[in-house]
Amino acid sequence: MKIAVEGCMHGDLDNVYRTLQHIEKVQNIKIDLLLCCGDFQAVRNEKDLESLSVPPKYRAMNSFWKYYSGEEIAPYPTIFIGGNHEASNYLWELYYGGWAAPNIYFLGFAGVVKFGNIRIGGLSGIYKSRDYRSGHYERPPYNENTIKSVYHVREYDVHKLMQVEEPIHIFLSHDWPLGITDCGDWKQLVRYKPHFETEVRERTLGSKAAAQLLEKLKPPYWFSAHLHCKFAARVQHGQDGPVTNFLALDKCLPGKKFLQVLDVDSEPGPYEIQYDEEWLEITRRYNPVFPLTIRSANFGGVHIDKQDCRQWVRSKLQARGARPFEFSQTAPSYNPSNSVSYASLPGYTRNPQTESLLQFLELPYLLDDTSESSEVFKGPFPSSDRDDSEEIPIDDVDELEELAEEAGDASCASAHLTLNFYSTSCPSAELMVRGTVRSASNIDPTVPGKLLRLLFHDCFVEGCDASVLLQGNGTERSDPANQSLAGFSVIDTAKRLLEILCPRTVSCADIVALAARDAVEITGGPLVHIPTGRRDGKVSSASNVRPNIVDTSFTMNEMIKLFSSKGLSLHDLVTLSGAHTIGAAHCSAFSDRFQQDSKGKFRLIDTSLDNGYAEKLMKQCPAGANPSTTVKNDPGTSFVFDNQYYRNLLAHRGLFQSDSVLFTDSRSSQQVENFAEDQVNFFESWVQSFLKLTSTHVKTGDEGEIRTFCATANT
Known about the structure:
The chain is of the alpha/beta class. The longest helix has 15 residues, at 13-27.
């Protein structure tokens, strides 16, 4: 079966389902199941927002309510676990698991279900040592402390999962198992998330409880989210033991790696979500010691015989069937056209699904039991008993990313661009551009270099306004210096798709910037969250090209002067020259480094160039070579965005004169050495310089236009 896995949902079901449908169409496949690794945000109405532990400005209805109300139906069976940003009041109703909406199943605070013959287990919440051994004492309405502690993982739920003996095929946890970074490329991880480095090195990043379960269950697949990045690892259990393939995914936003589709061996369909016999047996045996106060569970109180209980559950399932009890609404759904008062709603409602399951298992309903929940726990904890480390970056990734976005806003404030500019008018815009770039690059690996060069030639002339795309006599595109530009078809393809989805909304200028951003990221470079809102220029003149672009024979002073006129520093110059780590150049671009002798052969006249490298270039580009012949900018890793370009400069193997001078000039040589030694340093600088480049002399607001076709101005 084909299973899609999504990281943090954050209530954005519409976009996730739309993306999956797009994948199905493009790849001609059928997806059987969607798994979500937490922060699902099953918010039914405005009242539920009061139980959502997020800053007030992030409290939004999003789109789950449509599926809860029946206005929309989930196109795929969906299974999710809880994270640390949830409507905890609603999930508490479904503590044992159940339908949060038709075709959308919550695994519970801990749970195992079957989908076909595939067993899927999960643990909701995040690990905090201070609450781990506590019972489930929190009850809605939550106060400022319990709204956070309610989603902290409890020993009771982990202990139940530790009783599972039969194979689990897939396991979900919101936070990562402790130590998982040892089994993957952690250096690549801290390159994108440098604030994780201390925790990674000290082995404090992740959940001890999840690590314990990983060691016990050893599932073939383990999926997580929480830290808002993609990270893969392979865990070998013992020398000849089984292997767990771990994958963490990001949240659903344009440009983020939030979705993965994989093939899992299974019996032929059709498939449906069903109760798991072993898990119901464990639930029935351990429910008598369910801790409903702050005191931990007394596992010595479990007296039901395991085999007898298993046989009892089996006979019950054979008589009734294993399909979960039917979905039932327990609160009114949000109505965007009609404001509803929720003052008369009870603070807690029994969910008929949970009641039916407990009756089926002949267990008492305990979730609204407050007889032993002392009112002490409804008030704030004394400061001496609480640990305020909840707000450290690892536990609140959203807050950290908000600061990063604010920094991004500040860097482009003068340009009046904003992050997620199309979030309302065309939410899938960045995803569509990224998909187009990736598809084109899979067919032709030279595409990323072409798109990156196209951006430079656009932004340096009239500013980042897509003026380089306009066709016609006397336009920038017609100038001989731009005759070798390529990548136009990729931009046009993305524009056609967006005009179908969101007519006259997304500018060609933004597509060019986003495409270049994605070109870097898919070739191994850093992901840059660039602001959008650019408008397309109406002016494109060939006469403006030569005075505004770097010639490969430029001296350092000439380059500094040109970059300075664009608001870019010497540091930006050295950093952005790193774009030459991918792409190719025609022989004519560096022919000035050689001279043709009387026999019609080239000889080296530029002594700054390594002799061995020069010999290779002369073989690739002999005198009289076809004008269309190209040479890779970085022969070693030509399709990978890395710091090899700077290492080449240290070895005197820069392709252009304008490359070599970066190392031979004392004003920039130290930065070249730093980047050659430290790729993370280069990537961090790239992010900042790329933001500045893509904000160069942009048109916003009432300036310019939104073209219908990128090659022609609107009439």
